[in-house]
């Protein structure tokens, strides 16, 4: 599809804004146009809710605040799943990608990480134009000053209901049945450079108003924590000596994120390389010498574990040389993003530091790095639908829930959007299990375990990663997304059904190909089949051999298998994992059963007549897990406590 240029996009937003200002009532209001907010707004509208997206600046909708890249190990899985549920980020990534690569290729395909470096402007352009063409969605530029909530219900002390928002410009309130807050790093945000601190959510952007934090903390009584992150200086490309770096070209065949794209839009000449270089002892020295000038690092020398600053890497691992990736910021951008050099010292010291790296010895900084500290809402106060348990109709998604990263934000945004719309339209909430998706793992981890540092997705967080692969996200989620959730278009659904049927037919064809090992050896003399006895093997059995591919089998049995050549890669992967996935089925069923056993939200855990320690009662009372499955995963739950709780649920339910 042809996308409108930025200016047109911007003008259309302004037009829509003007034409809709009169409206004062929506089903769903989304606050914030970042990665969570845009997915939330689009998903709510797809489900059928009249939706309003309010954001501070319409021209920053879809902005990539930090690294212009999408995906990676674990994060790529989330992008594929968001796409399978008809979200935006996968297609936007395909549109804007300028360096596609699959990370972790040395491991099995279940943990490959699809990733792309992006052109910032194109990404933003795509997201903005998608929102403009989404029916039932209105975009309004403005800063939300206040969240409107009812007084607590005397029958249910502490329980409120959201009724809408009020903007900072003093205009009339806008009401809605559901409100989704996706304010990212903006909630009581402070920016740090050297010894200077200023209020802000991101460089150039004001923080969220104090009114919003006040409502969450004081009126709704939510537990709020504080987190920190940072970004590196942007470097002028022409001033870098690229001959002193190692060149990393993109994959020769770009793999798209979206199941709707069989190839990316990128022409080969629009694929740019990345460059790898390393820090030197001089970098360590500058970090140490400037610690007294660096208030962000003084407050917490360890910093976040994921995406740590160069200061905390130097302090944690003295004397070690660290990788620095120099990544393009866009096709026509003259800037490089130095991944690994996030820093918060004064700008003149930042310049001294980067010049200690040989390839950067004459480099110039375009924008200095900075740190940001912000409030987040402890996510154990949310239900699996991402609704605040104590406030009907209030949903939270993205960095406000203690996560970091665009993909984590997008995944939560989509799911909060779905549930906010369903709540507004009087439909029951829907949940995603950790047995069926990384989105389920992410949400379950957040609401059951909470966070003590910015949460980032890794494949190691998913117990069933051999089933939850990037290649099969459409089969896991698109059908459910259409049939049960209502967030998937019929076009995408039909494509998923076509793929599902094609794969089923291909697997059936492979099963019917039965030959003795002797005959297989004759047909495929190059394969290293070790069986000495002659047994009967199906085509599917054979595909599990390392040196056999679907393409090879199709060349021997073209009449039977060649109709399925478009699925060859998926079939190769399926064959490798099928035996393991079959073994996992029982465990998955057990967890799903536990997830179906709901725990009433009003249980008084302190007087529950079962044997539970005081510590376990306190944990259960604080988190109030919504299912037995979620209770089993709480930190501090003992196996005995789980058994006793199970007995109680079986007895009462
Ligand atoms: P954001 O993308 O931040 O979007 C929030 C939106 O809400 C903004 O559009 C803002 O204008 C709007 N908004 C806020 N308050 C209001 C209000 N009251 N009214 C209306 N609109 C409002 N991620 C990583 O994975 N690795 C990193 O190294 C990394 N470093 C980062 C460094 C910095 C300095 C920053 C700012 C972010 C960094 N991130 C990093 C995080 C990444 O940008 C976020 O995880 C991601 O953007 C979160 O998406 P979000 O939608 O939750 O919030």
In short:
The chain is of the alpha+beta class and 653 residues long. It has 22 helices and 23 strands.
Number of separate strands: 23
The hetero compounds bound to this protein are:
flavin-adenine dinucleotide
Mean pLDDT over all positions: 90
Which residue ranges are poorly predicted, with pLDDT under 50 across at least 5 consecutive positions? none
Overall structural class, as computed from helix and strand content, comes to alpha+beta
Q: What Rg do the Cα atoms give?
A: 26 Å
Principal-axes shape call: globular
- N- and C-termini, Cα separation: 52 Å
Main sheet record? 8 strands, mixed
Strand content: 15-25%
As a percent range, the share of helical residues equals 25-40%
Number of DSSP helices?
A: 22
GO molecular function, one term: flavin adenine dinucleotide binding
Keywords: FAD, Flavoprotein, tRNA processing
Family: Belongs to the MnmG family.
Cofactor: FAD
């Amino acid at each position: 599809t042809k996308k409108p240029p930025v200016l047109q996009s911007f003008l259309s937003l302004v037009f829509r804004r003007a034409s809709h200002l009169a409206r004062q009532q929506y089903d769903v209001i989304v606050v914030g146009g970042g990665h969570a907010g845009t997915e939330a707004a689009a998903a709510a509208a797809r489900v059928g809710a009249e939706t309003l997206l309010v954001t501070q600046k319409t021209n920053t909708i879809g902005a990539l605040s930090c690294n212009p890249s999408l995906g990676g190990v674990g994060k790529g899985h989330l992008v594929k799943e968001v796409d399978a549920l008809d979200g935006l980020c996968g297609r936007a990534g395909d549109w804007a990608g300028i360096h596609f690569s699959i990370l972790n290729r040395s491991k099995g395909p279940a943990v490959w990480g699809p990733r792309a470096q992006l052109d910032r402007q194109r990404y933003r352009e795509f997201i903005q134009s998608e929102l403009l063409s989404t029916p039932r969605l209105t975009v309004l530029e403005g800063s939300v000053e206040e969240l409107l909530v009812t007084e607590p219900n005397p029958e249910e002390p502490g329980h409120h209901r959201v009724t809408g928002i009020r903007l900072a410009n003093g205009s009339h309130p806008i009401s809605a049945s559901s409100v989704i807050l996706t304010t990212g790093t903006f909630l009581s945000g402070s920016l740090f450079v050297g010894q200077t601190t200023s209020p802000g959510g991101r460089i150039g952007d004001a923080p969220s108003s104090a009114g919003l934090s006040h409502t969450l903390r004081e009126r709704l009584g939510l537990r709020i924590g504080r987190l920190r992150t940072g970004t590196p200086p942007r470097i002028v490309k022409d001033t870098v000596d690229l001959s002193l770096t190692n060149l990393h070209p993109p994959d020769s065949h770009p793999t798209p994120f979206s199941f709707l794209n069989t190839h990316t839009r990128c022409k080969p000449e629009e694929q740019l390389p990345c460059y790898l270089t390393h820090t030197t002892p001089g970098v360590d020295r500058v970090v140490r010498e400037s610690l007294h000038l660096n208030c962000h690092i003084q407050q917490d020398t360890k910093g976040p574990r994921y995406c740590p600053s160069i200061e905390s890497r130097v302090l944690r691992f003295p004397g070690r040389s660290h990788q620095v990736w120099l990544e393009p910021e866009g096709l026509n951008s003259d800037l490089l993003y130095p991944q690994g050099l996030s820093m918060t010292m004064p700008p003149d010291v930042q310049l001294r530091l980067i010049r200690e790296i040989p390839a950067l010895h004459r480099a110039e900084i375009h924008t200095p790095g900075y740190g940001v500290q912000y409030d987040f809402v402890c996510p154990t106060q949310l239900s699996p639908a991402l609704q605040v348990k104590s406030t009907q109709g209030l949903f939270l998604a993205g960095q406000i829930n203690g996560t970091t990263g665009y993909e984590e934000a997008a995944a939560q945004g989509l799911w909060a959007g779905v549930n906010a719309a369903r709540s507004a339209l009087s439909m029951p909430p829907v949940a995603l299990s950790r047995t069926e998706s990384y989105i389920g793992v992410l949400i379950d981890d957040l609401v059951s375990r909470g966070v003590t540092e910015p949460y980032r997705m890794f494949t190691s967080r998913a117990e069933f990663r051999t089933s939850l692969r990037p290649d099969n996200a459409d089969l896991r989620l698109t059908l459910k997304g259409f049939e049960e959730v209502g967030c998937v278009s019929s076009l995408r659904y039909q494509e998923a059904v076509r793929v599902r049927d094609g794969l089923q037919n291909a697997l059936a064809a492979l099963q019917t190909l039965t030959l003795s090992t002797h005959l297989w050896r004759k047909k495929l003399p190059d394969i290293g089949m070790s069986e000495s006895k002659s047994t009967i093997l199906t085509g599917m059995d054979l595909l599990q051999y390392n040196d056999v591919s679907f393409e090879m089998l199709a060349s021997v049995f073209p009449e039977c298998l060649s109709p399925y050549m478009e699925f060859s890669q998926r079939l190769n992967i399926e064959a490798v994992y099928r035996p393991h996935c079959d073994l996992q089925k029982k465990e998955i069923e057990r967890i799903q059963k536990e997830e179906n056993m709901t725990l009433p939200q009003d249980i008084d855990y302190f007087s529950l007549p079962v044997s539970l320690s005081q510590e376990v009662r306190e944990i259960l009372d604080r988190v109030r897990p919504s299912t037995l499955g979620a209770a089993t995963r709480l930190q501090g739950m003992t196996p005995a406590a789980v058994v006793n709780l199970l007995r109680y649920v079986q007895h009462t339910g």
